[in-house]
């Protein structure tokens, strides 16, 4: 469905859509076809996540925790990279962040994955944008509301990983 079609769905249809997407993402089948299906679904989510209304709906829905879970359990790095891209697009295009959205969990998980695979520059290039977009989303929300929210705690290791990655990037470009 297009973003316009998704935005016109009634609540039962929205719930059905989210349930089907979540079910497909939760699939534990290890075949190449299953990974390709997940990648195609995640690519679709990337296309609809650039619409503000859809991004706001999806980030506040049951889908966001499912995306975090996929980031945690997926063994396919392409799937992980695409999940991070969906998360980055949702964070970038959402109009408002609800207090119950587990953004801190996503930030912590992204930070841990980057730290554990710090020498993998391809992985860092796919995960750092999501981390940055989530941090910017929190800063934007706190600025709008005028007070920091305890539910959006950002671990200091997130900033450390970003700074280390920036230093490594500077060294890479200087030595090239």
Outline the structure in words.
There is one protein chain. With 176 residues, the protein is mainly α. The chain has a single domain (3-168), classed as Leucine-rich Repeat Variant (Alpha Horseshoe). Helices cover 76% and strands 0% of the residues. The chain is built from 9 helices and no strands. It has helices at residues 3-7, 11-26, 32-48, 52-60, 63-73, 77-93, 103-116, 121-145, 156-175. 30% of the residues are buried.
Please supply descriptive tags for the structure shown above.
single chain, 176 residues, mainly alpha, Leucine-rich Repeat Variant, 9 helices, globular, disordered C terminus, transferase, ARM-type_fold, kinase
Low-confidence stretches: 170-176
Question: How is the biggest beta sheet arranged?
Answer: none
Domains (count): 1
Radius of gyration: 17 Å
Distance between the termini: 45 Å
Helix/strand/pairing class, anyone? Answer: mainly alpha
Estimate the mean pLDDT confidence: 84
CATH topology, by name, is Leucine-rich Repeat Variant
- Care to count the β-strands? 0
CATH classification class:
Mainly Alpha
Annotation field: number of helices: 9
Helix amount, in percent? over 70%
CATH architecture annotation name = Alpha Horseshoe
How are helices and strands ordered from N to C? HHHHHHHHH
Global geometry: globular
Proportion in β-strands: under 5%
Keywords: Kinase, Transferase
Organism: Ramphastos sulfuratus
Protein name: ULK4 kinase
GO molecular function: kinase activity
